[in-house]
């Protein structure tokens, strides 16, 4: 991971996104993960399933789209009692788009660490809630705590390697 100057954003758009996808927003990370795509290649020896073409992932109220998805799984779950395989991590590449009922996030690639309940988006990250927009190079969402971090780095869309946020105040009734 790149070492870059960053900005921690709490109580803003990204924190609200993490809250909506974490337990604080009613999202249950223990719900089933449904994946659809144009093709699937199973690599049992590597414990990977590779989905390609119009990939869509649904877990509860969370939706993700990408061009390619690599699912890393274990043959047996952590309990070792012979239950079906568990998904440990999902790597998404190519036009990654993530949405919850209130927010959206997009980036060049993403990693959903299912075991640790964390989502990382990297490259040209755009996080949107209503008219509010955050841009950066990295976004980390902790689905347990609801905290998030947006970091700069790289130079995308004129941000000079820094985090950029546009926050539009809500209008009061009658304005």
Précis, in short:
This protein has 175 residues and is mostly beta strands.
Write the layout of secondary structure elements.
Blueprint (H helix, E strand, L loop, with lengths): L5 E2 L5 H9 L12 E3 L2 E5 L4 E12 L2 E13 L11 E14 L3 E11 L4 E12 L2 E11 L5 E4 L12 E3 L9
Antiparallel strand pairs: 1-10, 2-4, 3-4, 4-5, 5-6, 6-7, 7-8, 8-9, 9-10, 9-11
Description:
The protein has 175 residues and is mainly beta. The chain has one domain: Lipopolysaccharide (LPS) transport protein A like domain (lipopolysaccharide transport protein A fold), CATH 2.60.450. 5% of the residues lie in helices and 51% in strands. It has 1 helix and 11 strands. Strands 1, 2, 3, 4, 5, 6, 7, 8, 9, 10 and 11 form an 11-stranded antiparallel sheet that branches. It starts with 5 loop residues before the first strand and ends in a 9-residue tail after the last strand. The N terminus is likely disordered.
The share of residues in extended strands comes to over 45%
What is the count of DSSP helices, taking H or I runs of 4+ residues? 1
What kind of sheet is the major sheet?
A: 11 strands, antiparallel
Secondary-structure-based class equals: mainly beta
Report the CATH superfamily.
Answer: Lipopolysaccharide (LPS) transport protein A like domain
CATH topology value:
lipopolysaccharide transport protein A fold
Shape: elongated
Low-confidence stretches: 1-26
Distance between the termini: 46 Å
Question: How many individual β-strands?
Answer: 11
């Amino acid at each position: 991971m790149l070492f870059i100057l960053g900005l921690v954003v709490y109580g803003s758009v990204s924190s609200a996104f993490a809250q909506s996808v974490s337990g604080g927003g009613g999202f249950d990370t223990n719900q089933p993960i449904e994946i659809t795509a144009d093709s699937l290649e199973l690599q049992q020896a590597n414990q990977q399933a590779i989905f390609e073409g119009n990939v869509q992932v649904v877990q509860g109220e969370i939706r993700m789209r990408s061009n390619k998805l690599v699912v890393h799984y274990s043959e047996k779950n952590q309990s070792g009692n012979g239950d079906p395989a568990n998904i440990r991590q999902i790597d998404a590449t190519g036009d990654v788009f993530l949405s919850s009922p209130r927010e959206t996030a997009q980036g060049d690639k993403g990693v959903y660490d299912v075991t640790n309940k964390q989502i990382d988006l990297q490259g040209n990250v755009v996080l949107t809630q209503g008219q509010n927009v955050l841009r950066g190079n990295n976004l980390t969402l902790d689905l347990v705590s609801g905290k998030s971090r947006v970091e700069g780095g790289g130079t995308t869309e004129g941000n000079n390697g820094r985090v950029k946020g546009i926050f539009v105040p809500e209008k009061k009734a009658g304005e």
